[in-house]
Each structure stands twice: as C-alpha cells, then as structure tokens.
C-alpha cells in the first residue's frame, strides 16, 4: 500500500533546483533528492512532523524522521559548517518530537547579510529507504510551513 508524504518549506524564500547548489554532494543528488531554497528569512522550521533525529553540532543542519521512516534533511547553507555554529540558535533539541512549522533554527540577521556566506538551503529525502516517486514544487516563492515543496510516494 502506497502512502504520500507531504514536505512543506522550512523557510520563506525562493525554490530553486538542486543542480544550482554549489556543493556537488547536493547538486548531484548523492545525499538524496529534493529542492533548494534561497532563503529570505532567518527562521527555519520543521518541514514535516516527526522526531528531530539529528541536530548537527554546527546547528547548520538537522534531520527529521517521519512516522513512515523517511529521513528529511534540512541543510542551511553550503559553506556554513565552517562557522562552527556562530550566529545559529537551536530552538529544539535532538530527540524532540516536532510538528511541521515548529521553529528549529534561527540565524543572526546580520550574518545572513554577509555575501561571503551562501545560505542556499537544501531540503531533501535522504537515501535511507526506497520510494516510488518524488514530486517537487515548481520554481518560485515559498512560505515556511505552508508551501508544499515535496510529495513523496512510498
């Protein structure tokens, strides 16, 4: 029996393709398939309900495991690991149960203005289990917690 899992945007911004991401791990879909978002906000929310399975030490990325067993990765920026968490604030803890739309990470607004930091955000389904199809939202504006960006049929 197939199920469709809906993933919402994690941040206000503009949807782009993974191919436009400067990091080849994402651009070539090595870590999984999904979309990229050019953020216009400093607030990053849970794109789906589930367990906050992993909150990276640098607070630049997190993984949510859905009740269907899918792992959804949100990776904020392509060169943000080097910041070591500077300017990032966690609002949830690893192991917490979260609802779609819950605030997970916020970024200092002054840091978001730094042109040397690429905040292009990747939202993808990690390659942890088979699925039938993944439908992606068309390119354009998105609203955190509202715009459907991925529909995954398992």
Structure, explained:
With 154 residues, the chain is mainly β. The chain has one domain (4-153): Glucose Permease (Domain IIA). Helices cover 5% and strands 43% of the residues. The chain is built from two helices and 14 strands, in the order ββαββββββββαββββ. A hairpin with a 5-residue loop joins β5 and β6 (61-65). The model has no long low-confidence stretch (mean pLDDT 94).
Give a quick rundown of the structure.
This protein has 154 residues and is mainly beta. Helix content is 5%, strand content 43%. The strands form 3 sheets. It has an 8-stranded antiparallel sheet with strand order 9-5-6-7-11-3-2-13, with no helix packed on it. Strands 1-14-12 form a 3-stranded antiparallel sheet, with no helix packed on it. A 3-stranded antiparallel sheet has the order 4-10-8.
């Amino acid at each position: 029996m197939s199920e469709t899992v809906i993933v919402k945007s994690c941040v206000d911004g503009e949807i782009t393709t993974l191919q436009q991401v400067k990091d080849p791990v994402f651009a070539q879909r090595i870590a999984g398939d999904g979309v990229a978002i050019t953020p216009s906000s400093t607030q990053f929310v849970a794109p789906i309900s589930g367990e906050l399975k992993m909150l990276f030490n640098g607070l630049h990325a997190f993984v949510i495991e859905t009740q269907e067993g899918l792992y959804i990765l949100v990776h904020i920026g392509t060169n943000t690991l080097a910041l070591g968490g500077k300017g990032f604030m966690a609002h949830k803890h690893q192991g917490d149960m979260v609802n779609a739309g819950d605030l997970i990470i916020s970024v200092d607004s002054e840091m978001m203005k730094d042109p040397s930091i690429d905040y292009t955000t990747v939202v993808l389904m990690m390659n942890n289990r088979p699925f039938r199809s993944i439908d992606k939202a068309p390119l354009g504006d998105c609203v955190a917690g509202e715009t459907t960006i991925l529909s995954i049929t398992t």
